[in-house]
Structure formats: structure tokens, C-alpha cells
Amino acid sequence: MKLWIVRHATPLIESGVCYGALDVAADAPHTLQAARALAQALPLNCKVSVSPLQRCKQLAEALSDLRNDLIPRTDERLREMDFGTWEGAAWDAIPLAAMQAWTDDFGAHRFGGVESANEVLARVASLWDAALQNLDQNQVWITHAGVARAAQLLSQGIRSVDTAIQWPKDAPGYGKWSMISCD
Known about the structure:
The protein has a single domain, classed as Phosphoglycerate mutase-like (Rossmann fold, 3-Layer(aba) Sandwich). Helix 1 packs across helix 2 and helix 4 packs across helix 5. Helix content is 34%, strand content 13%. Strands 3-2-4-1-5 form a five-stranded mixed beta sheet, with helices on both faces. By secondary structure, the chain is of the alpha/beta class. Strand 2, helix 2 and strand 3 form a beta-alpha-beta unit. It is built from five helices and five strands.
């Protein structure tokens, strides 16, 4: 089985704003461009799971319009980390003490009061484990950078983190993807 981790297209939000669970749309022309590239890259009859946030659903719908064999199904486990009270705030306006508390206990701290990195990792792990039960079908996850990072860790057998240093820095760019072979 191959798993494509696809990040939504460029979101329509000001640069430097904290958004995770904030439901913002993506740029329509960039979404279509990403869908066209993905439609050409994917093999037939992949299982397509998509985050419930509109920036991901837009890409899933555009992909499905191009390829009727790719039928998206929403999966809550693919949503981005919820930054709670910090959703919609400028990153540089978030108090340093809040940022420090998060980095001091990265895995367990609920930045913004809602969800920790390890809770995100556990949520994504439940979908990862389900995907590994269907090794006969290629899968596509249309999702977010945080979920892509969690999938990187899971592919290495890592199911919890203690420090921010352990959390992957790299994720697919907007409208791009990475592929993981799960054999």
C-alpha cells in the first residue's frame, strides 16, 4: 500500500496568523492546480479520506471532479491541531509565556487549551492503524501540515513525543504531497 499525504492549497488567511482548527477556505486557482497535479499522479481507485475543514474539502472535491474513481470521505481524525484560544491570533501576539509553556512540555501541553501534540498523534495513529489493515488499497489523506508531521512520526514507529525537537519540521508545501510506502 502507498499512502499519499496531501496538504491543502494556500489558505485565504493573512500570513503569520495561528490557524489550525480555524475553518478557512483555500485559494481556488491554487486548489485546482493542486487537484490537477494530484489527479495525474494517483493510481486508480485509491481510498480518499479528507479533513472536515473546508480548505481540504475544496481540494478533495476538485480532485473528485477530475477523477470520478476518487470518492472523498470525511474523517475527523485528519483535522489540524486545535490551538484553542490562540486560533486566529497573530503568532507574534501570543505571549511568550504561552509559547514557552508549549515548548517546555511539547508533547503533553495543550497549547491554547484544547489539544496537545501527543493527542494529535494518537488521533492520527488511530487512522494510521486502520489504514494498515487495508494494505491492498492505496490511500490518500487530504489534510494539514500537523497531520503530515504526525504521519512521518508514525511511519518511523514513533507514537509520542516529549520535546518540540522530536516533532518533524518538514511537511508538504501547500497543494503538495508526500508518499509513504506501507509494506
